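Methods — Computational structure assignment.
A single polypeptide chain was analysed. Its primary sequence is given first, followed by the predicted tertiary structure written as structure tokens.
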Amino acid sequence: QVQLVESGGGLVQAGGSLRLSCAVSGSIFSINAMGWFRQAPGKDREFVATISRTGSSTDYADSVKGRFTISRDNAKNTVYLQMSSLKPEDTAVYYCAATPYIYSSRTQAYDYWGQGTQVTVSS
């Protein structure tokens, strides 16, 4: 089993920054890529960012490219999402996810999900 626990969400003003963390535990030997997704009320869950096992490859949704940075510290079994220049449209529940695939932006590829952490950006 793989367990993911997000933290770091909260309320921030537009233009501000926030750092999300995802603690990974369990059978992490089966995990390669990690991803961040978000879901706003009444909308489908959407891809935000993904990172390969070693961190050598990353990909971002166009809506966050240049503003968000995904990283991971495998020694700490933790994945991060550094968010800057936040906009009200970034408001959503943010989910950390894990997949045995080496790289993917598809929600269907991810087998394990955290409980989510709320990010609210005020204008």
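Note: The chain has no helices and eleven strands.
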